[in-house]
Amino acid sequence: MDYIKRDAEAALRNFANGFPVVAVTGPRQSGKSTLVQKVFPEKPYVTLEDPDTRSFADQDPRGFLAGYPKGAVLDEVQRVPGLLSYMQGIVDREKRMGMYILTGSQQFGLLSGITQSLAGRVALLNLLPFSFNELASAGLLGGEYEDILFSGGYPPIHDRSLQPAVWLTHYVKTYIERDLRQLIEVRDLSSFQRFLKMCAAHSGQLLNLSALANDCGITHNTAKSWISILEASFLVALLRPHFENFNKRLVKTPKLYFLDSGLACYLLDIKNRKHLDTHPLRGALFETMIVAEIIKIHLNKGMDPPLWFWRDRTGNEIDIIIDQAGLLHPAEVKSGKTIASDYFNTLKRWKTWAGDRSGRGFLIYGGDEEQERTGIRVLPWRKTTGAFSPG
Predict the structure, then answer these.
(1) Would the pLDDT of 82 be above 80?
(2) Of 148, 288, 306, 327, which has the highest C-beta tally within 10 A?
């Protein structure tokens, strides 16, 4: 299939006009290399996954960089972190914008090097798998949300028309288990595999590290460490509770979300999209997909997602809070395809709780009809991108 245009292209070009170095990071196989080569076809492309190239860059960083006097695209640069300090001297001397375009799959590896060597000289763009908008532009979004919920957004699944389970089986074994095991020195692979599956089963729920640890036979500290690794690898995100209490006692625990619903479905052993029709986690997986989509919308603009959730100790909850310009816009997410009156109950109560802080409300649901209610916009799932695009 031809290249599918990425929503992050504009932000990437903009960053390259204002910073000497741009780093594109995200999970493996999210399309980082394809994106940077498409946007910067004139730049030499060098992958540091190649053992000979990596050895040269590691042993003679000055000589390696001298081979690219006008800059280059350097793929998987976290493989040779020592390059970044040598890069600093070059960009300070040349004062040329967009000289180096870097990619990296492990946020922690890349960010630690940037913090030490390139602070103030680099812009960071996070690229996740395909968004609704990107798939729609290529005619790949599908008619029902179960299609994209099951397949997820990883580019190879759509580029190569592969069955999701076929590709994700190899993705989990060759990237997630290999990469993360090396980073956290997992001795018992079965415990880590069980941990991944349990995290998928808890996507869209409050993060309970003690329960995860007990279910997987690991310590609380190990569970905390593994969650941090999954978050830094762009496999999961933690949605934090909003701090406004409105005279109520708040839950302070974050909610856990997978950043690709297809990967979550695979880990839950959902074999095909028909299994979603009766699956007990259908609602949580739909919410997972919508939260990931809103995160993608902001990251593709080069912005941090201003997303929270709100929940008090009596069980009142708003799925998503979007904090913009002092207003708190509430959004409820429902997987049903027919609009039910009780979908609006919590959104209406939110107006009472938040008062002047309350912004416009949103109801995102699994159907196709768009409506305007008093202070509430009813959105079909596929309209999420347009409604929440910043600016």
Answers:
(1) yes
(2) 288
